[in-house]
TrEMBL record:
The keyword Transport applies. One of its GO terms (cellular component) is plasma membrane. It holds the Pfam family TonB_C. It is a single-pass membrane protein. It is found in: Cell inner membrane. This is TonB C-terminal domain-containing protein. Residues 143-236 form the TonB C-terminal domain. The chain crosses the membrane at residues 15-32. GO terms for biological process: protein transport; transmembrane transport.
Length: 236
């Protein structure tokens, strides 16, 4: 190595040394600042406290105070009026007796009876007439029975065959009539002994016409039984 190059080497070393010290200072400064940042205490946030407040209790309101009614003051009587009334005497009116006149007798007025209104139902209903009570008349019954026998005698026919053969006899027939005079039934009650005469008697009863019962005959009976004797004789 030459002497010419020696100063240059020393210059480079000095520069390197200065740069290293500068770099070291920077590293130390950075390290110190980092340590300061790490050791700086972190701020601690205060915990949030939530308090639930209860609703205020409503106390019942006291009842309104009722004031007692004030006594009504009675008006004081006026003493001077009472004294004046008490001082003046009460005057009684003088009553003059009056002779009482006799009152005339009231005239008798005819009393008018109001018409009773008739209901429409009563107007529509037919009036029921009361049936008068009819007494039984025996004489009317006898006359009717005699008329019945007369009607049968008029219808009686003596058969020619029986007359020619000399048949004769008495036939008693029994028959029933209703109140209108209608023949209900007829039968032989007592035979003559000849069927020809018996049948002639029945034909006479059935051919006769009868009137209705009288109102006073056999009251309360709807039918009546009769008996009639028919005589068949040549000399009759």
């Amino acid at each position: 190595m030459t002497t010419a190059t020696m100063p240059t080497m020393y210059d480079n070393r000095e520069w390197v040394a200065q740069g290293g010290s500068l770099l070291l200072g920077l590293v130390l400064a950075l390290a110190i600042s980092k340590l300061a940042i790490q050791h700086e205490p972190m701020p601690v946030e205060a915990p949030i406290q939530i308090t639930l407040s209860e609703p205020p209790l409503e106390l019942p309101k006291p009842p309104p105070r009722v004031e007692p009614p004030k006594p009504i003051e009675q008006p004081k009587p006026q003493e001077h009026v009472q004294q004046k009334v008490a001082a003046e005497p009460i005057r009684q009116p003088i009553v003059t007796p009056i002779a009482a006149k006799p009152s005339p007798a009231p005239e008798a007025n005819p009393v008018s009876v109001p018409d009773v209104p008739v209901s429409p139902v009563a107007k529509t209903l037919p009036k029921v007439e009361e049936t008068p009570v009819v007494q039984r008349n025996a004489a009317a019954e006898g006359r009717f029975a005699q008329d019945v026998r007369t009607q049968i005698e008029r219808k009686k026919i003596y058969p020619d065959s029986a007359r020619d053969l000399g048949m004769s006899g008495v036939v008693e027939v029994v028959y029933v009539l209703d109140r209108t005079g209608k023949l209900m039934k007829a039968d032989i009650a007592s035979s003559s002994g000849f069927p020809t005469l018996d049948q002639a008697a029945l034909r006479a009863v059935r051919a006769a016409s009868f009137a209705a019962f009288p109102a006073d005959a056999w009251v309360g009976e709807n039918q009546k039984e009769f008996r009639t004797r028919l005589v068949f004789s040549v000399n009759y």
